[in-house]
Each structure stands twice: as structure tokens, then as C-alpha cells.
Amino acid sequence: MQPDYQAVLQEIEQEIQPYFGMGRVADYIPALARVPGRQFGMAVRTVDGDEFTIGDADSPFSIQSVSKLFSLMLALDIMGDDLWLRVGREPSGTAFNSLVQLEHEAGIPRNPFINAGAIVVTDVVTSRSAGAQRRIADFIRMLTGNQDNRVDEEVALSEKEHGYRNAALANLMKSFGNIESDIPTLLDVYFRQCAITISCRDLARAATPLAQGGYSPINGQQILDRRDAKRLNALMLTCGLYDAVGNFAYRVGLPAKSGVGGGIIAVLPGQFAVSVWSPELDANGNSLVGTKALELFTTKTGLSIF
Amino acid sequence: MQPDYQAVLQEIEQEIQPYFGMGRVADYIPALARVPGRQFGMAVRTVDGDEFTIGDADSPFSIQSVSKLFSLMLALDIMGDDLWLRVGREPSGTAFNSLVQLEHEAGIPRNPFINAGAIVVTDVVTSRSAGAQRRIADFIRMLTGNQDNRVDEEVALSEKEHGYRNAALANLMKSFGNIESDIPTLLDVYFRQCAITISCRDLARAATPLAQGGYSPINGQQILDRRDAKRLNALMLTCGLYDAVGNFAYRVGLPAKSGVGGGIIAVLPGQFAVSVWSPELDANGNSLVGTKALELFTTKTGLSIF
Amino acid sequence: MQPDYQAVLQEIEQEIQPYFGMGRVADYIPALARVPGRQFGMAVRTVDGDEFTIGDADSPFSIQSVSKLFSLMLALDIMGDDLWLRVGREPSGTAFNSLVQLEHEAGIPRNPFINAGAIVVTDVVTSRSAGAQRRIADFIRMLTGNQDNRVDEEVALSEKEHGYRNAALANLMKSFGNIESDIPTLLDVYFRQCAITISCRDLARAATPLAQGGYSPINGQQILDRRDAKRLNALMLTCGLYDAVGNFAYRVGLPAKSGVGGGIIAVLPGQFAVSVWSPELDANGNSLVGTKALELFTTKTGLSIF
Amino acid sequence: MQPDYQAVLQEIEQEIQPYFGMGRVADYIPALARVPGRQFGMAVRTVDGDEFTIGDADSPFSIQSVSKLFSLMLALDIMGDDLWLRVGREPSGTAFNSLVQLEHEAGIPRNPFINAGAIVVTDVVTSRSAGAQRRIADFIRMLTGNQDNRVDEEVALSEKEHGYRNAALANLMKSFGNIESDIPTLLDVYFRQCAITISCRDLARAATPLAQGGYSPINGQQILDRRDAKRLNALMLTCGLYDAVGNFAYRVGLPAKSGVGGGIIAVLPGQFAVSVWSPELDANGNSLVGTKALELFTTKTGLSIF
């Protein structure tokens, strides 16, 4: 029998209150730094098509690294398993944008969810399709069914102006021959993909194919085959939370992908997609309140992959 | 409806044949090096108490690092969550017995399944209980219900004679204050725990509590509480396969723990424990044929956590 | 009594013959790769103003990293000891263009002779003087007294087209706030400085101030104060030979700076500057025949700083 | 003309006063921790046989890592250049007792002056001569001409009780096959060698062969051949000061070896050996006042290798 998701969400909204103020809003660019921290939204979408939301579930926020999940779907569609010749599938074990590993492993990033790996993924989309930036945004809008998911141009510009570390990653990988695009073009696409705005409800809808064997009930299409849906879930579980994958699996027990905008999307295959948003981050760059909310969610429902 | 596990095992036994000879039996100690490589056994134990086996499922082999799963259960019972002050819960991202990470992180190993972490876990059992080595072996026998699971003294001695790297790990952690026991005593317990012999059938039985909310039908006891059973599954998934956790999750999709003796134990919570043994290892130190067999198992049954 | 330098040079020219073919001409850019390997020149200039040369001592070659010594003189003149807040004075202990150390030490390169450090040095000249590229080339021409030392535009362009790793270094340091210039401009100055052509005779003349307490007899000016001349010699000895400083000090025993064009300049304070050129490099990127020639030189003359 | 060394020492004794209290006495073992910090001695011995001393130049202190210079002389005598197959000659570029480099370079330490390298050197003496510990102490007494240079048994025992990191190094190198001796025996010799007591006057006498082409006027013997004396000076300059070789060369400009007992020995080939002792250490583990005193010494006399 299905839990009473709405009641669970209401309890969570109460119980996360003491955690506000314990994290810190991302401050490396002004446009993110001024987002008020005490916001919280959560949305569940079940495979039966039911939706449950609480709080600021319809407020748009900056998708940031959660976008890496969707550009990866596109790149897998373009390259198939050959993609794994250019990016690994192992957790990084070090800081999420470290250059050390890249240098030791000849420019092959450990996985597609660290910055270096996501840049390779975006390079695949950029170098092999016309209008790459448009294609990523179009794909996300197709998954959410919401034409309002647009690039926040101020955020995109600000990312670019502070993006020297990502430029270092791209140049280093290019020196190893693992980047095909022209670097300024590639970084432009990358920064714009991270600057798309989205809401919790949108995110839950967009991730539903991962809970439903690859099928999107939003647009009635098979987005991924069943096997790739499973595999993306496995990748999220082992690599989706920066340096905190182990702790997140231990506490929450769901495949998930987070972003420094404060959003997290998680999935229970065969059951639901659940998204949460709260801007204050923990030391690993994951939403502190959001992680707590997801931990409460799996504890209260008794539902996790483990 | 339950798959026809026996038929699945029979198909697997056929399909893994071409993979013999592609890996290499562990050769760092003579007692392991002389194990014939072309052996294969597999055992499934469901939560309904059914058992299905194929091949050499009752042949004893060296448990090696799979023992770390059981010593961890004991250490968690002794210290509770305080254990996590002395060992992390994150994948290592580097070679499974690396000293680098230990030095950078003040003697706190990344997780309890790399050698350094397992030595800390054994230190907890050694320093806080009388007759530690006996206690670990007794615990394993209690879980398997098989009094024949004994320490292979030749293997234990051989491990000790080639154990300078583990001695380096123990000394380094002791220099940081993270080892309480006398080092020769500790290493003796550690090497003996790794030298226990066990069969696939035994392993599947011993791991059943992880599939059954902590309850062991073998001895009728609640070995772990439900929450800790889930958590151990999460730890296995993110840290149980040395440097190959990501690939294993991607290909197999089950929480698992491997050992260089060629054994692997995996679990689908709520459904079954499945073990496999085949001595030839891949480049990451995991059974090559065993990993293939588990991949076939989840593909054929359509059952995985993802 | 002064050794018979000319006789020594003649002996060296004979004895280095068997070493041709043991190294490899730098091949990361076409313009360097096509330089014939079997060339050898050597020049000594004593503090008394005598000059002794052998072989191809007047042939122009690509100055490459030897230029770092001269840009450092300029940067020290501009910033004084404050330069050491932006770059260290310790040997790197790792590959000469590694990013690892930069990341661990917050964008402060270990010394001014590794690529990252030389980029910071060039940034000082670029950001704090008008016409930086011209200023570096002018300074070198002033030291050699030879107006023919010009930028090889083909080499400069080729460096730029293959300079992704240096671009990675510059971007990484900029992300830490240790680069002031616009990166494309900076890299342009840097690549052009490395592409200046020079001969052994020119190099020996240009380095004479380091043997003569900072005074240049070529142009009659005090280029550095006596203390800075000593300090630059100390820096060359501990940091001037990429990863081979220890072996070079052990075998040769002179402060020196090398470049992948095959040139090396060395100094015995109070006595002479000695330069050598031969394009084939050893595994550390230093001229193989050139290093051998300098080893023979200090052995035969019995003169070294030790 | 020779400087007035006595006058220089007197000026230095005045000028180093403000530097007391800025460093910290080594505190990793009690026997060193209780040494009063405000002590200072200095001794010069010229190649003409003159000796000049100031302050506590005849007070015995713990030789610690300065002993590595003397055990290296012995090991070179035993193995000749084959020693360099087991230990490198390059500066370490990282913390002086790091395990990282050892792991990356297959158990070959970077140089004989970091702990790992000194343990290999002591292993050579231990495994290839009877009564190794006695042999090292005898050799030092032979060089100083002072039979009072004895092992401080309290210090040796204390080193052993806190020597887990050195035990880790020895075990790691043994796992790579680079240690021949039994580890407890080896560490006992190593800790006892570091616990020898010596004075500044003794040290200056013991190092005189390095200033005098290998000849010891104390005992009238050629201790090293001329070439090896030069080479040891080169090794000291590039590797003798832990992580501070570059800064030391820049500030002082003499080949030197330091110890955490607060002693430093330095040499100007052809001129003198100079030793200093003051127990308070800087962040790199070198005597803070001692380093300042040597800097003043080379500045005031105008004598350095550069």
C-alpha cells in the first residue's frame, strides 16, 4: 500500500525547520549568493502519475549540476556506450572539481557528474549536434513539459566570469585530446546549461523516466531504454553527490543528483521521483536541509533501494 | 512471481565458460596462488528459505576480504555509530590499500572495506573483546551454521609473512592515534580472519540477514536492527568492490562485497542473498567470472536495486 | 691559474660524440621537432672577458625555458622581494608542469622556473609594464648585445596551438587570484618569450652578470645587485633543471638553467659563465649531450661550486 | 684574506637574540621537549685547522638527522654508487616523512636525507656489517675525535615508542623489497643513531672532510675521495634541509644538514665547516635561530658557494 505522501511531506516541512541556518548559500557568484536561504520545496511524482508537493515546490531555482543528469542522457543517446571511453564510471573520492585525478588518468574524468566529466559530456553534445545549448534546454523543457525553463542570462554570465577553474579543466583535458570543441564555445554551452531555472515539480517530472523504466508519462515517449534507466540510477548512487555519495547512500538510500543551487533529485525505481530544494549547502556542496528532508522521507516511508 | 532461479543458474554456468582464463588467480601468497582457476560455484538463498546452487557451491575457499563484512557487523555491535569517528563511509577512489589518503586525512580510512578501514574495524574487535580472533570466527560460524568454517593456518602464516604493506598501514594509523591494539597482535587477528575457509552456500546463508531486515533464519536471531541492515547494504554498494564500485553497480546493480579468494556476496533486500566463487581475478582484484555471473544473474532475473 | 679552456672544450667535443642519438629532440611542436639532433656548441666567457667557443657556438636555437631566467630578473626588478609572495623558492619534486602542487598550495607555484612559476613571472612583467613582450626581448638583447635575438614567429604560433596545458595552469592560478593579466594576452607574451632565438655565445654573455656580482661587461651596467646575483644562482641550483636538479648538482655542480630547445646556461660565481647547446633531450627534458658536456667540463677543470 | 671569524661570531651572538622564542623546541618525544630553548652555540673550523667558537659550542645535544650525513658516508663506502639504485638524489618537494612519494615510486625514497632514505641507508649499514649501531657511533667518534659522543638511551627508547611513522615507512619499503634487515633490528639501529649526543665543536670537526676534499685532519685519514666529498656537498645543498632547501640556499648559500635537535652543519668547500645549535625550530623543522645565524655568517663574511 502506498504511503500517505502528503502527510509525510507535511511532517518533513515541520521537522526540517531547525536545520535552517546551519548551511550556507553558494556564494561564488553574486546571482546565487543573494538567493534567500530559508526556502524549502519538495515534490513527489509517483509512477501512477500522482503528484504531491509542499512549500516552494513551484518556485524556480538554478538547476546547476542537476543539469548534468540531463546532458548525460543526451550524450548517451548520441554516443552510446562509446561515451565510456571518454569518461569513467567510478566515484571520484576527492574534491568535486579536482585536477589531480585528471592529470594522473590522462585526461579521462572519473565520472560524468564531477565538473570535468560533465564538461566532456557537454563537449559530446556541443561537438556532435547543431545548436547544442538550445538542444540541452529543449530537452529539459521536453522532459518537464514546461516552456518556462529558461537560461538565466545573468547567472550564465556570472558563471563565465568566475569560471577559471572550469576553464583550467577544459584546457587540461584538451591537452590530453579529450575535448573536441573550441573551448570558449564549450564553456559557454556548459555555463548556460547550469543556469537553467527549474522548480521542484519540474524536476520530479523530468526525472520520472528514471523511476519508470525510461518512459516519460509527461510527453508519452520512451526517453531511455530500460537498461540505461537502471544504469543512470546506478551512476547517480555511486557518483551523484560529489564527495558525499557514501554518506548520502547510508543516510538516504536513493540514487540522486544534487546541484549548488540547492536542488536535489532522487528516484526510487518502480515507485517515484522525489525532488527537494533549499538553497543552504553543507560542506560538500549539497543542500543541507534538502538532504535532511530526503533522509526523513525514506525513514518515514520505509522506502529505499536498500 | 519468483524467477526460476535454478534454471537461471544453469544458464549462467554455461555462459560464463568463455570467461575462464581471462583473469588471474591471486598470487601474492603461495597458498592462494596454487588454487586451480577453473572453478565456479554459485548459491542463492531467498528470504523464503529456498536455496539454489550450481557448480562448486559447497567447495570451501579463502574468505579473504569478504570477512570484512562480518567483522564490521561485530564492530558496529560493539561501538555503535561511534565507529564512524574512526572510519569513513565514502568510496576511496584510489588503489584499495593506498597510504596516500590516510596521510592526507589524519589516519582515518575512507571506509571499512579498504584494508586500512578493515584493520581499524578489527582493532575495535581486538581491543574491546577477549579472544578477538575466536570471536570473529565464532560469529561467522554462527551466521553460516557451519562449524567447519575454520582458519587455514597456512594461509594465515603466509599472509603474515607477506603483510608488510598492511603493517605499514597499521603503523601509520597508530602514529595518528587511530589504533589501540598492539600491532603484532592486531595483524595476527586480521590475517587469521582473512584466512577463514567458507563455501558459496555458507556465504549466502551468512548474508541472509542483509536481505531480511537483519534477521538470520539460520539461527533464528535478529543479528542487526533493520536500519543497520539497510546501512550495510548502502556501504557495500558504494564501497564494497575496491576501485570498481561504480562499474559493478552499473553492470550488476546489487550491494556486494568481494575478496581476492574469488568470492563475492551480493544481496537484493527483501528478496535474496546470492554468492559466487571463481578464483581468477580481474585487474581490480574482483573475481572476473564471478562478476560476469552476477551481471548475468541480474540481467536474466530482471532483479536489481535499480 | 686559469685552466686551458680551449683545450678542455676540444676534449669535450671529442668525448661527447658517443652520446649523440641517446636522447630525443623535443617533438611537441613541429618547429622544434625538425631541428637536426646532432648539433653541439659550447661557449665559455670568463670574468676577465675571455671567450672560448667550440662547435656550433654561434648557431641560433630556441631559447625556450632558459628565457625564464631573464624574465625573472625583470620581475625582480619590478616587484622586489614581494615577488616571493606570489611564487615560491623550493624545488618542485614532481613533473615540471604539474597541476597537482598548484591545487594543493592555493595557486602559488613552487618556484619561478617551473612553467606555472614562469607564467606568474611573465604576468608580473605583462601586467606592470607597457609592451611586455617587447620588454623581455629588449632585455635579452641588451644582455647579449646582439640585436639578432628575435622571436621566431612560427615557434611562437606553434607553442600557442599546443599550449592547452599552459592555458590550464594560467586559468587555475587565475581562479586562485594569482594572475592579473588577461589570459590570452599573458600566454601570448609567454609563448613569444620562449620562442626567442639565441646562440651559445649570446647565452654565455647574457649570463655573465651572474658570475660577476650582477655586473654586465657587455653593456657596462650593473644589472642586478650583488645579493640578487647570488640568490639567482641559488635558485638555479635548487630549481633550474626541472626534476633533475639533484642529479645535475651531483654530476655537474654548477647553478644552471635549461630549456627544451637543448640549451643550458651555467655559472661559476667569480669565474665564468658557460653555455652549451645540443638538441637531443633526456627523459627530464634537459639536453643529454649538453649535460654530459658540462659534467666533463667541471671534472676536467676541477672547478665547481662544491 | 681570511675574515675575522671570532668577531663575526660575536656579532652574530648579539644579533640573533631577538629571534629567541619565535620557534618551538621539538616536542614529539619528552626527552627533546624538555630541552631549554634559549641556547645557542656556533663553531667554525677552517681548513687551516683554526677553530672559532661562541656560546654553547661545547654543550652536547641530540644529533638527530644530522647523523644521516655520517651514516651515508658509511653506506657509500660499503655499496659505492650502487647505493643510488636504492635511494634517489632529488629533493622531495613534500613533507619530510611523507609516504606518498614512496608509494608512487615503488619504495625508492627520493634522497638519503628524508627519513625513508635514511632508513634505507641505515639498512645498508645494518645488513652488511656486524654491529651496525656500534659501527655508526664509532665512525662518528672517529670523525670528532671525541669518545664522549654516546647514545642517549632515554632518547633512543623514546624515539622507538613514538616511532610508528618510521615503522610505517620501513614496512612500506620492505613490501617493495627495498629493506633487507629485520625491521625491529633496523629501527633500533636507526633510533639509536639519531640519539647520539654531540657538540657544535664536534660537528664542525666531523664535517671538515667535506671542506677539505675528503681528508680529516682530526685523524689524519682520507675519509672520502675528493669526488665523493663534492657529491655529498651537492646532496646537502639540494636535499639537506627538509622542505626548505630552496629557501636555505637562497638565504644562506651553503651545503648543510639539519636535525630536529636544533643542530645544523654547513660547509664552504676549500674554506671551512661551520656548525650551529639552537633548539627552537621553525615550521620546517630546522633550527630557527641557527638558520638566522648562518645567514648572518655568510652575509657578514661575504662567503658562500654562490
From TrEMBL, chains A, B, C, D:
Q: Which InterPro entries match?
A: Beta-lactam/transpept-like, Glutaminase
The EC code for this enzyme is: 3.5.1.2
What are the TM regions of this chain, as residue ranges? none
Would the keyword Hydrolase turn up in this protein's UniProt record?
yes
Query: For substrate, which residues are the binding ones?
Result: 65, 115, 159, 166, 190, 242, 260
- Keyword Hydrolase applies: yes
The GO terms this record gives for MF are:
glutaminase activity
Q: Which reaction does it catalyse?
A: L-glutamine + H2O = L-glutamate + NH4(+)
Gene3D superfamilies recorded for this chain? DD-peptidase/beta-lactamase superfamily (3.40.710.10)
Q: Which GO terms describe its biological process?
A: glutamate biosynthetic process; L-glutamine catabolic process
**Which keywords does the record carry?**
Acetylation, Hydrolase
Q: Which HAMAP family match?
A: Glutaminase
* Alphabetical list of NCBIfam families matching this protein: Gln_ase (TIGR03814), PRK00971.1-1 (NF002132), PRK00971.1-2 (NF002133)
Quaternary structure annotation from Swiss-Prot or TrEMBL? Homotetramer.
The text of the family note is: Belongs to the glutaminase family.
Could you tell me what this protein is called?
Glutaminase
Which taxonomic lineage is given here?
Bacteria, Pseudomonadati, Pseudomonadota, Alphaproteobacteria, Rhodospirillales
State which gene encodes it: glsA
